Amino acid sequence: MRYKLQSLSGLLAFDAAARHGSLTLAAKELGRTQSAVSQQVKGLEEQLGFALFVRKPREIELTSAGRSLAKAVKQALEGIDDKVTTLMRRHEPNVIRLSAYHSFAIQWLIPRLPRFSMAHPEIDIRLNADDHQVDVVAEGYDLAIRGGWLGKLPAGVTPMRVEKYMPVYAPCLADGREITVNELADYPLIGYEDRSYWNGWLEHNGVELEDPDFGKTYSHSGLLVQAAVVGAGIGMAPLATAAQALIDGRLRCVPGKPSSNGFCFHAVTAGDPVSENVALFIDWLQEEMDQMEVDLQQYIA
C-alpha cells in the first residue's frame, strides 16, 4: 500500500506546533530551527492542499481541518509510542523502571534495595525519584510508588500500606532523656504547613496543648525528618520516612499511639497482567513494609 503522505517529518513538525501553538516552541522541542519547522509545516499544507494553521503576528491557530488532523496524529503517535515502549520492555525483561517519591526513595527504599539486589542479582532496578503524579505508561515506567487515599482504586493501582504518623525528636533535643506527652508544649513542634497532621495525632491520643509552639514547616517528609534529626524540634513524621532514623537511634518517638489520616502507599503498574519480575518486586516491597511495622513496635511506646 502506498501512503498519501511521503514523509513523517512534516507530521511530527505539525504535531509539535499544534500542541504548543507556536512554531518557535515546536522547533525547540524537535531540536530544529524555527525556519525549518515552518517550512516542514508549509510543505505538509501544500501536499494536503489546505491550510492547517491561521498565522498571526505572534502565534498560530489551528484551522478546523488542522484541529481534526491534530487529533488523529496525536492518537496515532501515542499508539506508536505505546507499542515501542512495550517492545523495548520485552527486549529488556530483567529491567524494572521504577518511579518513587523523593523522600520515600531516599529515606526508605534505597537503604533496603541492596537486600533485593542480593536476592535477585539478575534484576536491574532503575530508580527515578520525582514527586509529580506520574503517568506510568506515557513516561515509560514499569512501576511507580505513589500515595493516595483509601477507597475505590482504578485498574493497575494496588494499595500497599496505610501511612502512620508519630512525633519524633533527636536525643540531643532533651540531653538524652525521654520527652513525654506533657512536655510537648515546651519544644518547637515542626511539621507540614497543614497542621491537621499534628491535630490528628493530638486528638487521637487525647492530648490538649495550651499555646503550642508550632515552629518551622516543611514541604517534604524527608526535610521534616532531617530537621528533627538535627534537633530543630519535635516533628510529626510519617513512620515510613522516619523508620531508619528510629531504628539506628537518631530519632526517638514521644510515647503515644500512631495516628493515620487514610493516606496510603500505592503500587501503580503499566498494565495488567504485570511482568513476573514486577510482581516479584511488588511482593518484596510489601514484605519489607510488613517487616518495618514489626521492627518499629519496639520504638513506639
From TrEMBL:
<dbReference type="GO" id="GO:0003677">
    <property type="term" value="F:DNA binding"/>
</dbReference>
<dbReference type="Pfam" id="PF00126">
    <property type="entry name" value="HTH_1"/>
</dbReference>
<dbReference type="InterPro" id="IPR036390">
    <property type="entry name" value="WH_DNA-bd_sf"/>
</dbReference>
<dbReference type="InterPro" id="IPR000847">
    <property type="entry name" value="LysR_HTH_N"/>
</dbReference>
<feature type="domain" description="HTH lysR-type">
    <location>
        <begin position="6"/>
        <end position="63"/>
    </location>
</feature>
<dbReference type="Pfam" id="PF03466">
    <property type="entry name" value="LysR_substrate"/>
</dbReference>
<keyword id="KW-0804">Transcription</keyword>
<keyword id="KW-0238">DNA-binding</keyword>
<dbReference type="InterPro" id="IPR058163">
    <property type="entry name" value="LysR-type_TF_proteobact-type"/>
</dbReference>
<dbReference type="InterPro" id="IPR036388">
    <property type="entry name" value="WH-like_DNA-bd_sf"/>
</dbReference>
<comment type="similarity">
    <text>Belongs to the LysR transcriptional regulatory family.</text>
</comment>
<dbReference type="InterPro" id="IPR005119">
    <property type="entry name" value="LysR_subst-bd"/>
</dbReference>
<keyword id="KW-0805">Transcription regulation</keyword>
<protein>
    <submittedName>
        <fullName>LysR family transcriptional regulator, glycine cleavage system transcriptional activator</fullName>
    </submittedName>
</protein>
<dbReference type="GO" id="GO:0003700">
    <property type="term" value="F:DNA-binding transcription factor activity"/>
</dbReference>
